[in-house]
């Protein structure tokens, strides 16, 4: 199979590309990037004039365990069809239910799905089940065993450290998560938001390469903290190699918090959606909507693209994706930067099961541009879900 994507503005931060170029894909890989590549040897040619061509997008935080976790969505429907060719599932499964996630979902989806094992062996079976309230649900040996057996797709450990998820156990759960991650040679992603232990103390425990998600949430202990301690600790963490991730979610993103953080010089390392069943119909919808929100906040298109290609690939330790370098995986996305009037919400105005969190109504903004999806190429083939 060979595809030629012609005449689009190619943005590939890894190679420093930002200009009108053609991209040829052959045998599942990127075969050539250049100007005026002949269409003769390609079976399909796509005219991308006036459009943006980027490496297949990577979403560093989703919930893809459809049918096994009450958060689970179908990644081919919600991610791949919107230009996201690789996702990282953030702790939907733990050691106990990972084999089911692997055989029934990961091995069968067209989307490339990688996973972080939840440090709780139950994973996120129920909504707000508080999987870390009882440390008997943690099993270091079993977790490490699953991690080592599935090293090709388990990249580390997830720990949700809000009061709802871990109560007073946040520090202990994080200590065990780091131990497990070290044993399997992976990284730790922590969920923050209304945590029992102050966020700077949790972030201090992290190692370079570890990830903080929901970094721009708007709860009282988040980046809106009046003494800017949280913003400062995140900036310091980022300078020592810790990944500051968005993880939009139902309540993990606030325009006010993000605006404040950006004005203090704290930019996300990676932009992810935290797409799950409770936000796929809004306020998240898809990764492109989250990316568009950061363009609205003043980041450039290429700054936003790098945070959904180059940086998540680096975080995941994968050099064959997140770039259109010749020989890379044939994953490519064609986007359109639309002008108009678009409405974005940061979170829902009400939520039913957020436990003791203070839930303030969300904010709505009107933006004059947005990124929209045009075409997905996965493993060198144009993705056509309508074909059998
Ligand atoms: Zn999540």
Strand and helix layout:
Blueprint: E1 2-12, E2 17-26, E3 29-34, E4 44-47, E5 52-55, E6 57-62, H1 75-78, E7 84-94, H2 98-106, E8 112-118, H3 140-149, E9 154-160, H4 163-166, H5 170-184, E10 187-191, H6 199-204, E11 211-213, H7 229-239, E12 243-244, H8 255-263, H9 287-296, H10 301-306, H11 310-316, E13 332-345, E14 364-378, E15 381-382
Parallel strand pairs: 1-4, 1-5, 6-7, 7-8, 8-9, 9-10, 10-11, 11-12
Antiparallel strand pairs: 1-2, 2-3, 5-13, 13-14, 14-15
Helix pairs in contact: 3-5
Detailed description of the structure:
The chain has 388 residues and is of the alpha/beta class. The protein folds into two domains: 2-54 and 331-336 and 375-382, Urease, subunit C, domain 1, CATH 2.30.40.10; 57-316, Metal-dependent hydrolases (TIM Barrel). Helices cover 23% and strands 28% of the residues. The chain has eleven helices and 15 strands. The protein has helices spanning 75-78, 98-106, 140-149, 163-166, 170-184, 199-204, 229-239, 255-263, 287-296, 301-306, 310-316, and strands at residues 2-12, 17-26, 29-34, 44-47, 52-55, 57-62, 84-94, 112-118, 154-160, 187-191, 211-213, 243-244, 332-345, 364-378, 381-382. The strands form two sheets. Strands 1, 2, 3, 4, 5, 13, 14 and 15 form an eight-stranded mixed β-sheet that branches. Helix 3 (140-149) runs parallel beside helix 5 (170-184). The protein is globular and about 65 Å long. The mean pLDDT is 94. It binds zinc ion. Zinc ion is lined by residues 61, 63, 90, 249, 274.
